[in-house]
Design a protein that fits this description.
The complex is a heterodimer. Chain A is mostly helical. Chain A has 13 helices and no strands. Chain B is α/β, with parallel strands linked by helices. Chain B has 14 helices and 13 strands. The chains are: A mainly alpha, B alpha/beta.
Chain lengths: 291, 343
């Protein structure tokens, strides 16, 4: 028998204390937290119902319009339209819409939280030094490790699924916002200072617009990561396509899992098309080098 | 052209700049006699500028010249406080700009000084006219009014028709015209031009120099112009300051610097200049010389090179007439050769 590392302190007691502390946190704050996140829950369910109860062609039209607004070219619009029709033909429209609702909510919240954080990081080296290890932890910690506490706090459902998705998906938008702003040509920044720009004016007239292609790459990655979380999120009651995959595994129905998986891939392609063509348009507007 | 009695626009008094963690202490060591190399080695501080005194007069083009690392770009950035000095004072119209708080400083940058950059530094995501409007919009001018002003400036630099283009669609020369229009648009009294033409190819550069001279004649701005090119300095500068290793070596008109270089460094610097194109006939006219009647005449502001033509046709001497209409003397080929001979 191997001896292993000597037990210097009582780890079991530490673990028990940690559990007790968390349990009392759940008992005391669980309801309050649920109340706080009620508006977010309403937002997701509203979005999901809207997408599911609208006629399919109106949803399709909305997607195509959004693609046009982002790309200003017809090719991606046609591609997105065709991919959505395929999704419908696979017979998983409603599940896909539930997934879209969760993913959109997670992406929107990630951007709303992540962009300001990234901007703050770009402006403060101290904050950056503090944030980088936190982001590393968020990206390497196995998802189940924080899934469990979220479920204990909120009970199984959409909110813990959303929060876990955000934790998993937010790092790229934060990192790339920080990177994009730090990479802005210092001469252009200096010029704006020389013409009397305040730091807020510098942010909105120079830093954010010039960092936009990089920020968009971050948002794109965040979207993809949010989408890849849906299978795992379905285990805690998020529903949608992920739930179909889970059922496929549980019932050993290869077809169910395969079709739902294909649906997730189609959604990924759709959102990637939209984000990328927007990114390309922003990039083209910058005309960075030469003609 | 500004005369020596126009009021001082920018006065620089004992300005020093040290880069590093503790510049004040490092500057004290320099004042105590430590030189640049030792400062770097022993304290890891870089001496950027040391004890600069300058008077830049209203309406003149003042050229600050030096090679790379001489501190010229650092110096020009003190005039709008993009860089803060470690010691010394900077007076603008007699007012100490180092005393300005953040708000005053912004207003000062928006209205009093404008800057043109070596690599243009235009906003790539904005059109030509939006770039020219930039400074005006920062100052809160209504869009319609800013557009009107910007339109006029674009016309002035000869870019009408390109208002809706993006910078990257324009050539380097055209981009720098946008940079110039952007600086002129704010109607600032002082233009700071940091190697503004150095990135352009020679023909375009010459066009831009001529255009700047012409604009200056019309607008009468005070221009501080940085360059590493002596020909450019002599062409544009009413006064030239020569900077080396962060200290001023000589300040004077182009002619003064050519005739009497203050030290070996300046002398080596000016050695290869075509002196005939810079030195003026008036400076070398001999008042005691008697000329034959019918001798050709030349203005005192003409360069020696312009007198060559008359000598080539066989004239023994040319009469030099000053701007006031009085004859100030005469020049012989002998006199011209003496002026051109390197000491």
């Amino acid at each position: 028998m191997t001896s292993g590392f000597p037990e210097i302190w009582d780890t079991r007691a530490f673990g028990r204390a940690l559990d007790r502390a968390f349990n009392s946190l759940v008992a005391e704050w669980g309801e309050t937290l649920e109340l706080i996140f009620l508006p977010v829950l309403r937002f997701i369910t509203g979005l999901e119902r809207g997408l599911q109860f609208l006629p399919w062609w109106m949803v399709l039209l909305a997607f195509c319009l959004a693609t046009w607004a982002a790309a200003r070219r017809w090719q991606p619009v046609v591609a997105v339209g065709v991919l959505l029709v395929l999704l419908g033909l696979l017979g998983i429209w409603n599940e896909a819409m539930a997934t879209v609702a969760l993913m959109l909510a997670a992406t929107i919240l990630s951007v709303l939280i992540g962009m300001p954080l990234g901007i703050a990081m770009a402006r403060s080296d101290g904050l950056r030094r503090g944030m980088l290890p936190v982001l590393d932890i968020m990206q390497t910690l196995p998802i189940f490790v924080y899934l469990i506490p979220f479920v204990m706090l909120f009970g199984p459902g959409k909110i813990p699924a959303l929060l876990a998705t955000i934790v998993f998906a937010i790092p790229p938008v934060i990192r790339l916002t920080d990177l994009g702003i730090r990479q802005v040509d210092p001469e252009i920044l200096e010029a704006s200072r020389a013409f009397g720009a305040s730091s807020r004016q510098q942010l909105w007239t120079v830093q954010v617009p010039l960092a936009m292609p990089t920020i968009m790459a971050g948002i794109n990655q965040t979207t993809m990561m949010a989408l890849s979380m849906v299978v795992i999120a379905s285990m805690i009651g998020a529903g949608g396509l992920g739930y179909q995959v889970l059922q496929g595994i549980q019932r050993l129905e290869v077809s169910r899992g395969l079709i739902a998986g294909l649906g997730i891939v189609l959604l990924a392609i759709i959102f990637d098309r939209i984000a990328q063509s927007y990114g390309r348009r922003v990039q083209a507007n910058l005309h960075r080098e030469g003609n | 052209m500004a005369s020596t009695n126009s009021p001082v626009k920018i006065r620089v008094e004992g300005v020093s700049k040290v880069f590093g963690r503790d510049p004040k202490t490092a500057l004290a060591r320099v004042e105590a006699g430590m030189d640049k190399a030792h400062l770097l080695e022993e304290t890891n501080h870089v001496l950027g500028l040391h004890g600069i005194d300058l008077d830049i007069r209203a309406g003149e083009t003042f050229v600050i010249m030096g090679l790379s690392g001489s501190g010229k770009s650092t110096l020009i950035r003190h005039f709008n406080r993009l860089i803060e000095p470690t010691g010394g004072r900077i007076l603008f119209d007699g007012e100490d700009i180092l005393g300005y708080d953040e708000t005053r400083l912004r207003a000062f940058r928006r209205r009093k000084v404008a800057m043109v950059f070596q690599r243009f530094a235009l906003l790539p995501h904005r059109t030509v006219i939006e770039n020219v409007m930039y400074g005006l919009l920062l100052d809160g001018m209504p869009k319609a009014q800013a557009k009107e002003r910007a339109d006029a400036q674009i016309g002035l630099v000869g870019l009408s028709g390109f208002e809706a283009s993006y910078p990257a669609q324009l050539s380097g020369g055209m981009q720098q015209r946008v940079g110039l229009a952007r600086a002129l648009a704010t109607d600032a009294e002082v233009l700071l031009m940091d190697e503004a033409f150095s990135a352009l190819d020679p023909l375009i550069r010459h066009d831009m120099q001529m255009q700047l001279k012409e604009l200056q004649g019309r607008l009468g701005k005070t221009i501080v112009f940085i360059t590493h090119d002596l020909d450019e300095a002599l062409l544009l500068g009413d006064h030239i300051a020569i900077l080396k290793d962060g200290t001023l070596r000589q300040v004077g008109t182009g002619g003064e610097i050519l005739r009497a270089p203050a030290d070996d460094y300046v002398a080596r610097f000016v050695r290869d200049v075509n002196r005939a194109r810079i030195l003026l006939c008036g400076t070398f006219a001999d008042a005691g010389l008697i000329t034959a009647p019918g001798a050709p005449e030349i203005g005192a502001e003409a360069t020696l090179e312009e007198a060559f033509g008359a000598f080539a046709t066989g004239a023994k001497a040319v009469v030099v007439r000053g701007a006031d209409g009085q004859i100030s003397g005469a020049l012989t080929p002998q006199k011209v050769m003496e002026a051109l001979a390197r000491v």
